[in-house]
Amino acid sequence: MRPSTVCVAFLASFACSFPWLKPEGIETLLNHPEAQAEITKRLTEHEAIHANQRETRQLNTGLVGGLVTLLDGTLSAVLDNVLGLIPTNEAVKGLKRFPEEKHPYQAPGPTDQRGPCPGLNTLANHGYIPRNGIATIGQINAATAAVFNMGADLSSLLATGGAIDGGDIISQKMSIGGADDRVGVLNGALNKVLGTPSGIAGHGKFNEGDASATREDFYLNGDNISFKPELFKQLHQQAISKGNGTYNVDAIKEHFKNRYAASKAANKQFYFNLPSSAVVMGAYYFIPGFFSNGTIGAGGIANEASITSFYGAKPTKEGQWSDPELTYTHVPERIPEQGWYRRATPMTIAEAVGGILDVYLYALPPMGGSGADQSWVVGPANIPNNPQAFSCFLYNAIYANFPSELFNSVVLVETVVNALSGLIAPGYKALGCTVNFPDATGTGVSQYDAWSKMYVGDAKYKATGSGWYKTT
Ligand code: HEM
Ligand SMILES: *[C@@H]1O[C@H](CO)[C@@H](O)[C@H](O)[C@H]1NC(C)=O
Ligand SMILES: *[C@@H]1O[C@H](CO)[C@@H](O)[C@H](O)[C@H]1NC(C)=O
Ligand SMILES: CC(=O)N[C@H]1CO[C@H](CO)[C@@H](O)[C@@H]1O
């Protein structure tokens, strides 16, 4: 396939995938007064605690604002001895209730793909995306909006990342699990030549990463996809001790901190670097952010009944949710049968980045990966600590990451990268970022190296678990 053909197909569909590139939309969010107040409060608290350790980081240079949530925990709820805390009727008034009759639950069959994302697995098990687990960017955008109220900006970014790094960008299809011959150029007919795309479970690229909430690291036991009951048990323990019985932001942050430490200690090929590390940290925030019954920050609750259903975590004893020794088995992911309310407001990139930042600042996990000689190869230095600057940094990291993945997998090279950059540049500007990645201006590959080093660091190329590292 000639690159020009590829780009034409790519370009046209790409423009449609980004309806969010509207400055007004993002601006409104960044100026949200509650969001600003909350992030300022969190950062101030954080700064007070860490003032001594971190002279080099500064608070608030150009803090534009940020996120809508992180308010979890200030809610009114009633106690139910089977479901745990459930939101008051006031908190769910006017919200859309699920499941829907025309989207019944059905367990996946043997050839259906399921993967590391409980959100996408749930959507497939209810037929909001194809039940075989092979979906297009458009299908994922529509389904994540319909059931979870994910903003089109956020779903486009995630799903496009999935298609580029783990799927087929021409048909815009991806497997929500591992590699699948039904995905690829000409529906896989050319996979023998080009290779079979990895699926969103492809490790160390844009998507799947180490230190996940309930999935084992890629290099430990070689299974990066399956739900691990023991890890869910640990998450449940944090819900009890930190979340006052809910899987709120405080609970997930503590779980992440522990998971990072445990993974780094156990995994000789540990890799935690931008941008995949941001996907991992974002996914933690998604637990209360999307699975809460009702709207997070407005009375919605990430209660036991909701979280276990979406995760397919089946308690081994009923009605024992307050027992820290409670164990779980796995069943397919499902929208809670007894009824569940979707959040009222879309989660945009701005909110997700605020969530990532909150998780990041709490745990301060070093970015990087293990080198061949057991050294630690550092990722990017100086990661900004305010949402706006962090968003811009993240965009750069995504760009710094794409070329290596494209060179690594399919035959699409610089032309695609340039097209991509040109098309995403407006969104990047909308967030108030300076558009300075080398590909946007057509400047040379030499500059790319320095820029890639700044945003992704040496770890991408030198860490053994990066998915890029080669032993030759
Ligand atoms: C829009 C397209 C989406 C894509 C491409 C995507 C992809 C992924 C990937 C690759 C992971 C693995 C990250 C890791 O290694 O930790 C993941 C995890 C996760 N995702 Fe998604 N996701 C999407 C949407 C959603 C939605 C809508 C939700 C919630 C409703 C969600 C909730 C989660 C959660 C909670 C995890 C963490 C799983 C764990 O316990 O380890 N995702 N997702
Ligand atoms: C914890 O939850 C109980 C209800 O189970 C509630 O009465 C109490 O106020 C909550 N405590 C905090 C600190 O939120
Ligand atoms: C969600 O909240 C509603 C209203 O309070 C309640 O009827 C329902 O059982 C809850 N569902 C779950 C899964 O907690
Ligand atoms: C890239 C990828 O998909 N990695 C592995 C994830 O885990 C499964 C086993 O469960 C492996 O087969 C994949 O190779």
Overall description:
- The chain has 472 residues and is mainly alpha-helical.
- It contains 18 helices and eleven strands.
- It has a three-stranded antiparallel sheet with strand order 6-10-11.
Mean pLDDT: 76
- Assembly classification: single chain
Gap from first CA to last CA: 28 Å
Global outline = globular
Task: Give the count of helical stretches.
Answer: 18
Helix-residue proportion: 40-55%
Order of helices and strands: HHHEEHEHEHHEHHHEHHEEEHEEHHHHH
Q: Structural class of the secondary elements?
A: mainly alpha
Cα Rg: 21 Å
Spatial arrangement of strands, main beta sheet: 6-10-11
Tell me the major beta sheet.
Answer: 3 strands, antiparallel
Layout of helices and strands:
Layout: H1 3-17, H2 23-30, H3 33-50, E1 77-80, E2 84-87, H4 89-92, E3 97-98, H5 118-125, E4 134-136, H6 137-148, H7 152-166, E5 173-175, H8 191-194, H9 229-241, H10 249-266, E6 271-272, H11 276-291, H12 304-311, E7 313-315, E8 328-330, E9 340-341, H13 349-363, E10 368-370, E11 376-378, H14 387-408, H15 414-430, H16 438-441, H17 445-455, H18 459-462
Antiparallel strand pairs: 1-2, 3-9, 4-5, 6-10, 7-8, 10-11
The structure holds protoporphyrin IX containing FE (HEM) and 2-acetamido-2-deoxy-beta-D-glucopyranose (3 copies).
Which features would summarize this protein structure in a list?
single chain; iron; 472 residues; 18 helices; globular
Brief overview, please?
Keywords: Heme, Iron, Metal-binding, Oxidoreductase, Peroxidase, Signal. It contains 18 helices and 11 strands.
